[in-house]
Amino acid sequence: MKVAQFLFLILTCALILSFIGNEQSDILHFEIKEVRDKEGLLDKYETYIRTPVCEDDKCYLVEIMFYWDVMGRYVGYDTIPGQQLTKLDHIPFTHEDYQKLGRLLNDGASPIGNYSKEELTKDSRESEIDGFSGATIQEIKEQVISGGVYSCHTLWHIAHKGEIIDSLKSRTKALLTKPLVKKLVKLDDQDVNYFLINSFKDEEFDLYMPEVFLMMKHAKGYFVKNTVEAMPSNVIQDSLSQTYFASEFKELNYFSQVALLKKLKPDILITEMKNVLKDALSDNNSIKNELIKKLIK
Amino acid sequence: MNKIRNYQCNGALTLVRSITATQMMLIVVLLFTASFNKTYAQEVLLEAESFDEKGGWFIDQQSMDEMGSPYLIAHGIGNPVKDATTTVRFPKKGTYNVYVRTRNWTALWSDKAAGQFQILVNGKPVPKTFGVSSRDWDWIPGGKVKIKNVNATITLRDLTGFDGRCDAIYFTREKNSPPPNDISKLYAMRVRLLGLERSPKTNSYDFVVIGGGMAGTCAAISAARLGVKVALVQNRPVLGGNNSSEVRVHLGARINLQPYPALGNLVNEIGPSQGGNAQPKDYYEDDKKLKAVLAEENISLFLNHHANQVKMEGDKIVKVFAENLETGEKIGFEAPLFADCTGDGTIGFLSGAEFMSGRESKATFNEPTAPEVADNLTMGISVQWFSEKMDEAIGFPDIDWGLPWSEDKSFAMTRGDWDWETGMGKDMVRETEFIRDYGLLVVFSNWSYLKNKYSRKEEFSNERLKWVAYIGGKRESRRLIGDYILTENDITEQNFLSDGTAPSSWTIDLHYPDEENKEKFNGEAFRSIAKHIKIYPYPIPFRCLYSKNVNNLMMAGRDISVSHVALGTVRLMRTGGMMGEVVGMAAAVSKEHNATPRQIYESHFSELEVLMEKGVGNPNLEKIQNYNLGGTLLESERKR
User: Fold this and answer.
1) Average of pLDDT values for A180-186?
2) Is the distance from CB of A115 to CB of A140 less than 8 angstroms?
3) Half-sphere exposure of B517 toward its Cβ, with a 13 Å CA cutoff?
4) Of the candidates A131, A230, A289, which has its C-beta nearest B279's C-beta?
5) Do A255 and B258 touch (CB under 8 A)?
6) Contact A255 B500 (CB under 8 A)
7) Residue where one domain finishes, among candidates A125, A148, A167
8) Does A194 lie in the same domain as A162?
9) Mean pLDDT lowest for which of A117-126, A207-216, B97-106?
10) Is A151 among the domain residues?
11) For residue A215, what are the domain limits?
12) Which residues of chain B does A135 touch, with a Cβ-Cβ cutoff of 8 Å?
C-alpha cells in the first residue's frame, strides 16, 4: 500500500499550517498536515512542498509531497498528480529515476549531505582538493540521478537538513499529552525517548514516571545515565523511583549506576536500595564502590 | 642530559637531534694492530645514514629490524636527488676494495633497475654503478679505489630519482673479504668499526613512551602534565606518525564523547585544524605537535631513535634501548613503566608480550564479521600521492622497470588516497619494505603510463607528480593481548564495561583487496575497498591498554588488545590519541602508588576515573577539528 493511500485511510484530522516566503530560504511554499490515528493521536506529518531547483541561472519549480514521522524524520515521498519531476532540459524522470530518488532520500546518512550543490558538480579533481576522497565522490555519483543532480541535492537537503524538521518537532512537543507519550514510548525508539526526556519539564517528570521507567527498561548506551542526570532530584529520591532502580540496578551499565549513585542521598535511601547497594560492592577500587560506601556508611 | 634541542632555521623546522660528544663522531675509522689482526687489516665502514650532508637523500628506518640498519633512500620522484657527501680519514694511503650494501628494489618485478646510484671518492666514481644487481640487501663489490690522500670526500650520487638505496660503504685493503650480511654479525661489525659503546648509557625516567604518533605523543604530554618525568622515543624526525607530513593521513573519529567528555581535549589541542588525505605538507602541522611536546618540561624527546632491544627482569621490562638513526649509538631508557605506542607492538614483541595478528576465526570470539577460518589477511599500507598542475607541460620518465601497464589497468587520477593500499595478506612487520616498494612501483607505473602512453595523456601533460609517500601509512600489525580482548560483539551490543575509557566511534571499518584490481595484477592488489559497520561510540576497557603478561607495559594506538574486527574501529587516530591521554593518566596513578597497570585497575581505578573526568587538554580551546568524524551512530543529545 502506498504511503499516500495509507494516509488517506487513516486521516481523521488535518491541521494546515502554512509557511510562505522567508521561513525557509530554499522553499517557496510548504503546507504541513498533521495525520492522526483512529484514537485521534498524532501519527505523522504530510507536507506539500514547492521549491525552486536552480541550475546556474535557470530555475524551475519542483512540487512534491514529503512524509515525516512525529520526530520530523523523513519517511517517504509522493508525486503530485500532474506534476512530474524533471531532469536537465525538462526531461521527465523515468520510473527508475523515481526509484533511485526514493533510495537516496531514504538514506539519511548519504554523503550528499556533506556537499554543497556547487561542490557536487565540480570536477573530481577540485572536489578532492577539499579533502574528500575520490571514493566518496564516486559513491555520490552512484546515488544521484544523472542529469538530476540538482533536484536530488535540493530534495535530500529538504528531507534531512531543512528547517521543516525543527518546526515539526516543536509542533509534536506542543502536542504532548499523557496518551501521546504512552503511544510514543511504545515505539521503543531511542531518538523518540530522548526527545521525550528533553521535552518534559521538571514538574512533568512525576506524571510521566511510568513511561520513563519503561523507556529505561529497554534502553541501551547512555540513555539511563542521561535520564537519571536529567531527572529532578526529588523524583530520584521518591520511593517509587528507588524501588524501580533497586530492582534494575544490576542490569544497569556501569556509567548509569555511577550517575544514579551520584544523585542518591544517604538519608533517604529505602531499605531495598540499601541492600542492593551492599550486594553491589566489589573488591575492585572504583568510583562506584566509593559512592556506594558513602551512601551506606 | 640528552634533552632534545629544537633548532629553528629561517622559520622552518630543521632536523632535531640529540647531541653528545660521541654522537658527533659520524664516522669512526679503526686501525687494527698486529695484536688484534695478524694481517694488519685496515678497513673503513661508512654508514650512509651518518653522512655529514645528506643532500636530497632521506633516512629510511622502516625495515631496519629486518635488514639490520637504517639506510639512505633517493626518493626524488623521478628527479635525481642532490648528492650526499661526507669526509673520511683513511688509515693509510693505498688501494682499497669497495663494497656497498644496497639492493635493486625493482628486481622482484623487472630485470631493470629503478634506483641506480654511484659512489664517488674525491669526485671520481668507483667503477661500478649500484642499485642494479642484488634483489636482496647485500654487499656489492664496487671495484678498487686508490687513496692518495688519507682525507677523502665520499659522495652518494643518485642517477635516477627512483628510490635507489644505500645502507653502508665498506673499504678494505683485504681482497675478497666482503663484510657479513647476517644481521647479528653485521651489528657486531658496526659496534666494532663505528666504536659504538657496548654498554650504552642509560637514562632514568618515570615513564618511557615508545612511538611518537598521535597515541604516543598524547600519552607523553598527558603524563608530563600530571607530573610524570617522561621520555618520548620516536623513530622519525617528526611527530604525528600517520598524521605527520611524512604519511599524510588526516585524523579520524570523534573526541569529547561520553562517558568522559574531557577525553580528547588534548587531541583537539595538538591535531591539525584542517582535514584531507594526501594534501600539501602544511595540512598536517608537524610543528604544532612538536611545539606541544617541547613545551612540556617533563618530557625528554628523542627523535630519530628507534627502539629495538629490551632488558627484562622476570615479567618486567627494566630498560628499553633505542638506536640513534644517524650515529648508530644506543641509549638505554630505564623506567618502572613503559608504553608501546609503536603501532607494530615492537616493544611488546621484544619483551615477550603475547600478541595476535591476522584475522581470528568466527569461532574464536563468536564474531559475525570474522572469517570461518583464521588467516593472515590484515589491512594494508597506504603509499599516498598527488600531482599539481603546472603552467607548462612537464615530462615524466617512460620507465622500463615498472609493471606491465595498459589502458584498462590505468587510473586516470591526480591523487592517490587511502584506497591505494598494498600488502593485504603480507607480513606487516617483516615485509614492510616489499609492501612499501610495491606501493611505489604501482604509483610510478601508473603515472608513467598516464604521462607517456595513455590515450588521453594530454589531460596530464601539465601535471607534475608532486608528492609520493616513502613512509607507508600502516593500519594493522601486531595486537598485544591485555587482560581483556575487545571484540565486535562488545561494541555492537554496547556491552559497556566498568573500566571503559576512551570511546571508539568510527565505524568498524575493515579493508579488503579490491578483487578486480587483484585479478588484474596477478593476485597482488594495490587498490582496496572498505566495508563499514556503523556503531555507537564504545568506551575501550582499560584492560585492553596493558599487556597481560609483561606487567609494566601499557599500549595505546593500534597495537592494543582487540580482535581484528574490533581493530576496524579503534584504529582511528583521534581514538588512539585519547587512548594516549588515558595511558598518560595511568602513568601518573602508577607513579603515585608505584602500581602496575593491573594494580591500577584493581586498586586505584577511581583515581584514573577522576583524571578522565577532568582531562589533561585545554578544555577552553575552540573545537575546530570538524573533519572526518565518521558515520557514527549517535544517541540524541540530552538537552536538559
Assistant:
1) 97
2) yes
3) 17
4) A131
5) yes
6) yes
7) A167
8) no
9) A117-126
10) yes
11) 177-296
12) 417, 419, 530
**Cβ B308 vs Cβ B322: under 8 Å:** yes
Pick from B330, B326, B328, B238: which is nearest to B51 by CA? Answer: B326
Asked if residues B378 and B425 have their Cβ atoms less than 8 Å apart, the reply is: yes
Q: In what order do the strands lie in the sheet with B299-302?
A: B299-302, B230-233, B207-210, B337-340, B553-555
Residues A115 and A227 in one domain: no
**Is A82 within the bounds of a domain?**
yes
- The complex's ipTM works out to 0.89
Contacts of B627 in chain A (CB under 8 A): 131
Domains and CATH numbers, chain B: 23-196 (2.60.120.260), 202-368+475-614 (3.50.50.60), 384-416+426-462 (no CATH)
CA-to-CA dists, residue B147 to B26, B51, B166, B418, B430, angstroms: 20, 19, 22, 50, 39
Asked if residue A163 and residue A45 are part of one domain, the reply reads yes
Last residue within a domain, chosen from A108, A134, A167: A167
Residue of B nearest to A199 (CA): B640
Residues A130 and A266 in one domain: no
**C-alpha distance from B530 to closest chain A C-alpha (Å):** 10
Spatial separation of the C-alpha atoms in residues A142 and A138, rounded to whole Å: 6
Cα B48 to Cα B15, B100, B469, B594, B609, distances in angstroms: 17, 10, 21, 43, 49
Give mean pLDDT, residues A251-262: 98
Strands, E, within B460-592: which ranges? 463-468, 473-474, 479-480, 500-504, 508-513, 528-533, 538-541, 553-555
Residue A153 in domain: yes
Is there a single domain that holds both residue A163 and residue A185? no
Domain identity same for A155 and A117: yes
Domain count, chain A: 2
Please write the tens of the pLDDT for every residue from B393-443.
999 999 999 999 999 999 999 999 999 999 999 999 999 999 999 999 999
Do A25 and A98 sit in the same domain of this protein?
Answer: yes
Those residues of chain B whose CB sits closer than 8 Å to some CB in chain A are 250, 258-259, 274-277, 279, 413-415, 417-419, 494, 496-498, 500, 530, 536, 539, 601-606, 609-610, 627-628, 631, 635-640
Q: Band of the pLDDT at A121, cuts 50, 70, 90?
A: low
Determine, yes or no, domain membership for A172: no
A129 neighbourhood in chain B, CB within 8 Å: 276, 279
Contacts of A222 in chain B (CB under 8 A): 258-259, 635
Same domain as A43, residue A95? yes
Q: How crowded is the C-beta side of B535, counted as CA atoms within 13 Å?
A: 29
The predicted pLDDT at position A89 comes to: 74
Confidence band (pLDDT; 50, 70, 90) for B14?
Answer: very low
Question: Cβ contacts (< 8 Å) between B539 and chain A: which residues?
Answer: 255
